[in-house]
Structure formats: C-alpha cells, structure tokens
Predict the structure.
Amino acid sequence: MSLVNIGLVDDHPIVLAGLSELVGELQNKRVLATGTCAEDALAMAERGGLRLIVMDLNMKGPVLETIGRIAALPNAPAVLVFSASEKVEDCCAALSRGASGYVIKGSSESELFQAIDIILEGREYISPSLAVRVFRQTQARDKKQDVVLSFREDQIVNQLLNGASNRDIATRLRLSEKTIKYYMTQIMQKLDAKNRLEVALAVQRDRMERQPAKV
C-alpha cells in the first residue's frame, strides 16, 4: 500500500517535533514536509504530493486566507486545523474557508489519529466538545424559509449524514462522482452552506425542528 504524504505546520518547535514523531509512526503515513507559518503551508501545498496538511490557526501570516487558497488549488490537499483555540467562531471560520476538520490541541492522540483517518476518507471532523457548541450555535440562528430538496438531493443528503464520501455516494447511487459534486453544489446553495459539514448540520437542525413535540 502506498504511503500517504502529510504536511505539518506549527510555529511551536516542540509541538511540531512531537507531531512529526507521532504522525511518522502511523501506518502507511509519512511526514513529507514541515513548516512554521502560513506561507510555508501554502508553499508545500503548491509543490504537490500531499494528501493532508495539519496546521495551527494562530501563527504568522494570514492563516484563514491561506486555508482558502489551499482549498482552491487543483488536487488540493485536505486541511486539518490543530489549534488551542476552542472558540466556535474560529472553528466556523476555518471550515468556511475550506478546512476539512478542526481538532483542539488538548485532545488525545487517538482523537487526532481518528480525525486524520476520517479526513483522508473524504469526510469532515470536529472535536466532539466543540462540535456540540457549533451545532447549538447553528440551531440558534434565525430560522430561514423552508428549503425543499429534490428526491435525488434528499438521497445524497441521507448518504452524507451516514458519513459517505462523494465517491461512496456515487457508487451507491450508480452516478458519476462529477454528478454528485454538481448535486452537492446545488444542495449547498439551497441550504446556504459553505461545505459538507454545514450541509449536515443544517439538515439535522431542520429535521429536529420538524419532529412533532412530545406530549
């Protein structure tokens, strides 16, 4: 099995060294590049060859802008933010720019490894304690006009809620991955969502609100 190349970016030398050692010990994974600032993250993404970049949020340079620029690259590596910040707004800002996950630095090694595996499968991940707060904040937003999804869009959303990647959905529905991406774009526009995670949160919130009140 081929190695999965990962880039690490953090401006704390001890954290960077520790991450390099931990990730380097994972099966079928290799730390191909390291850096200490937003500029380093963009440079390693542009060089290519990486499947994932794990990067801090609070370091030199326009980090959020850099996440967006990385996400816009052809064959862009996924971005996992590994940050000490537990602010909901920081998490949402990173995800809205194109990050695939957000893990708090106080998390366990196993959680970080789980997040890496999930993101490499094409899914999204947020540290559970933070995910609950993100979900609650989403629930607290002003309720918008009901959105009606087509039969096919509803099929795709159901697969998404089960953790399926675009490739998995395409296989299960016997459609091309390109078609699934088209439908996903339409769904995000309808739900005013910036990424797959926001789609899932919006749908879950809507379904909860539609449930009849228990007597």
